[in-house]
Amino acid sequence: MPKKEEVYKGIKVAGLAMFIPSLLIAGPLTGYYTGGFLEDRLHLPGYTTFTLTLVGLAAALLETVRIIKKMIKIGEKP
Fold first, then answer.
1. What's the CA angle centered on 61, arms 7 and 12, to 5 degrees?
2. Residue 60's pLDDT is what?
3. How many DSSP H helices and E strands does the chain contain?
4. Which sequence spans correspond to the domains of the chain?
5. Environment class of residue 32 by beta-carbon count within 10 Å: exposed (0-12), middle (13-18) or buried (19+)?
6. For residues 26 and 8, what is the distance between their CA atoms, to the nearest angstrom?
7. Which of 24, 47, 48, 57 has its CA 20 to 30 A from that of 14?
8. What is the CA radius of gyration of the chain?
């Protein structure tokens, strides 16, 4: 039977892994809706939405890399 610490470690890693898809969806969607809002309200050029969507995707990818590094670090702890 596994130790409690190993079980909790596995649950923590699984929780972090389940958060990644939400993060990858939320980043670009936030950029898309923020860009659309700014285009409508401030009459900015049409590429604003595209640019902010890419910025949101980049931020989501960076945070995903951080989460994966954290998962590896948790998995390697004795």
1. 10
2. 97
3. 2, 0
4. 22-76
5. middle
6. 27
7. 57
8. 18
Work out whether the CA dihedral 25, 30, 31, 32 comes out positive or negative: positive
Half-sphere exposure of 44 (CA within 13 A, CB side): 14
Angle between helices 47-76 and 4-42 (to 10 degrees): 170
pTM: 0.85
What pLDDT score was predicted for residue 2? 75
Query: What's the full length of the chain, in residues?
Result: 78
Whole-angstrom distance, CA of residue 53 vs CA of residue 4: 42
Contacts of 48 (CB under 8 A, 6+ apart): 35, 38, 39
Residue 77 above 80 pLDDT?
A: no
